[in-house]
Amino acid sequence: MSQYHTFTASDAVAYAQQFGGIDNPSELVSAQEVGDGNLNLVFKIFDIRGVSRIIVKQALPYVRCVGESWPLTLDRARLEAQTLVAHYQHCPQHTVRIVHFDPELAVMVMEDLSDHRIWRGELINNVYYPQAASQLGEYLAQTLFHTSDFYLHPHEKKAQVAQFINPEMCEITEDLFFNDPYQVHERNSYPAALEADVAALRDDAQLKLSVAALKHRFFSHAEALLHGD
């Protein structure tokens, strides 16, 4: 059984050679850590020609952008891997393929999508993709329908709710979206010049009632299987 440790670039290469599903694994020779998110290590694995071939992603036991003072469960890696596997079954044309997953190391080996661009940045740069709406619509339709009560037997749906429940990650959303902004909290960051506006927001009872209604929906409407990002 593997014991958890944080991967280095050389660890990621060795892991990809063993579990990457590459015909000539010895051609995988280097790795670059490219994770730009808040939570995980992400390595692009390159072959001897400098071509990125596979992705190795490892969950860290804490919030990466904060440090070890904000611990997180490693089980979120299992939840993400199993969610992507389920979504791939229903919509393979628009879901990244998981090649391998190790729950002890919280590591997954994934299809390389280096030929894609992150849509968030493209939207910011006002780049138009004419097929984006139809492709996103197809992905949502297939994955949401096939993991909902409209398709699943009630017993299977309830079993999946239990399998995929993720209280720690939900708590982050609960706090950052529904709690912190409406009270004085150390995680709130804003220019001092906005203090009066922030205080008015905290004192807006109608706004907080509306937020409470949204929070209740977030707590209680487990309608389909979602990827957290």
UniProtKB/TrEMBL annotation:
The record's keywords, sorted A to Z, are: ATP-binding, Kinase, Nucleotide-binding, Transferase
- GO annotation, biological process: methionine biosynthetic process
User: In Gene Ontology terms, what is one molecular function of this protein?
Assistant: ATP binding
Q: What Gene3D superfamilies does the record tag this protein with?
A: 3.90.1200.10, Phosphorylase Kinase, domain 1 (3.30.200.20)
Q: Does the keyword Heme apply?
A: no
- Look up the domain of life of the source: Bacteria
Q: Which residues cross the membrane?
A: none
PANTHER family the record matches: METHYLTHIORIBOSE KINASE
UniProt record similarity statement? Belongs to the methylthioribose kinase family.
Protein name (Swiss-Prot/TrEMBL) = S-methyl-5-thioribose kinase
Say which species the protein is native to: Klebsiella michiganensis
Gene that encodes it: mtnK
